[in-house]
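REQUEST FORM: STRUCTURE PREDICTION
Request ID: SP-0412
Submitted by: Lab K.M.
Chain count: 1
Length (residues): 119
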Amino acid sequence: MKPYLFIALLFTAVACSSDNEEDLTPNGENNSDDPCNTEAITYENGISMLLTDNCNMSGCHNAGGGLSLETYNEVMTYVNNGAFRNRVLERQDMPPTHNLSNCELQQVEAWLDDDAPEN
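STATUS: Completed
RESULT:
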């Protein structure tokens, strides 16, 4: 009976050791070994990709979905009236299908606090 117990323990140890960091870190959250880069965030260097990945999809904030956030000028309309900060950072209800990671939220906040530079 002891050989079966040893095999079961060995199998468990091997199965648990195959976890990778992406599986253990939900929603792209950064750990202390991988700090979030919030330096020199601009629309062209960070924010436009975040919007493309999370907002500018079919039926959401693109030219065919009502309120468009596809260009810097379109985004700045909502930055300037406070709606962008309110929905993304304060209410955190955009995007409605999932939460942005802590790092993404920090990058948006850094960009807004730096007066939302284009490039």
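NOTES: The first helix runs from residue 2 to 16.
Reviewed by: T.R.
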